[in-house]
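Practice problem 4.
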């Protein structure tokens, strides 16, 4: 298996989505390829950071208790009905009570579903924050250091399934490098800059509808954006041309807004 094919199949290898034959061939290549070994090690580290971040997203305790309490009350009413043979005159009253409890359970379930949906929608932010933390804050996080725009575009050609352009700044920050990243099992352009004393990640990727949760929608410089903080990292996400999306991530809120004002 050549290196290019191996690189494209690394994420499927980590997610155990390859056939036995493909997995053996890729494993043989990885054992002799330091570049693939480094990529896999970085991805394991990224997934570890992301897993720790997502463990914080749990259902509120009071919501669990409310649902459990509603179920227990319904069970008790059923037991009482059978044990004490409620008279026909009282059955309508108990029916109304039981109906009320069921409605309460349904409302609680809807609330819980909305909470779960909001959690799922914010996964895009947690992944971008994790990638910035793992790679941009390391001493040597990059795979390509050439700063020429044409060379950068050529380097990513074939590695991602879309064409992109390098962001243009009024005041050029220091370009530290770029790397091939991943979202939704698809290639992502990840460029890293130094702006003053902070590091800023710039992402370009093919977007999906769930990447733009309405709860985070804001207007900045007359443009619709999706802004939030995750793990002390500010994330500004916006739609680009076609199906592309762009994101900026940094732990310095003031500097990040300054960068965003130049390229949005």
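Answer key:
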């Amino acid at each position: 298996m050549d290196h290019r094919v191996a690189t494209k199949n690394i994420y499927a290898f980590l997610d155990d989505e390859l056939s036995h034959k493909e997995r053996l061939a890729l494993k043989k290549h990885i054992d002799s390829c330091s570049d693939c070994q480094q990529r896999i090690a970085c991805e394991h580290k990224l997934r570890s950071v992301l897993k720790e971040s997502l463990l914080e997203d749990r259902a509120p305790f009071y919501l669990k208790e409310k649902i459990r309490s509603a179920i227990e009350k319904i069970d008790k009413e059923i037991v009482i009905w059978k044990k004490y043979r409620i008279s026909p005159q009282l059955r309508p009253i108990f029916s109304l009570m039981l109906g009320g409890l069921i409605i309460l359970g349904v409302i609680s379930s809807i609330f819980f579903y909305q909470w779960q949906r909001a959690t799922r929608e914010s996964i895009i932010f947690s992944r971008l924050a994790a990638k910035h933390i793992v790679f941009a804050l390391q001493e040597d996080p990059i795979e390509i250091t050439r700063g020429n725009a044409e060379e950068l575009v050529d380097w990513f050609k074939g590695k991602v399934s879309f064409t992109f352009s390098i962001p243009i700044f009024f005041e050029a920050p220091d370009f530290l490098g770029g790397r091939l990243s991943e979202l939704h099992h698809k290639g992502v352009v990840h460029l890293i800059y130094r702006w003053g004393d902070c590091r800023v990640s710039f992402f370009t990727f093919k977007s999906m509808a769930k990447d733009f949760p309405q709860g985070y929608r804001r207007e900045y410089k007359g443009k619709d954006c999706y802004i939030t903080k995750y793990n002390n990292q500010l994330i500004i996400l916006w739609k680009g041309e076609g199906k592309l999306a762009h994101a900026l991530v940094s732990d310095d809120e003031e500097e990040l807004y300054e960068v965003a004002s130049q390229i949005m």
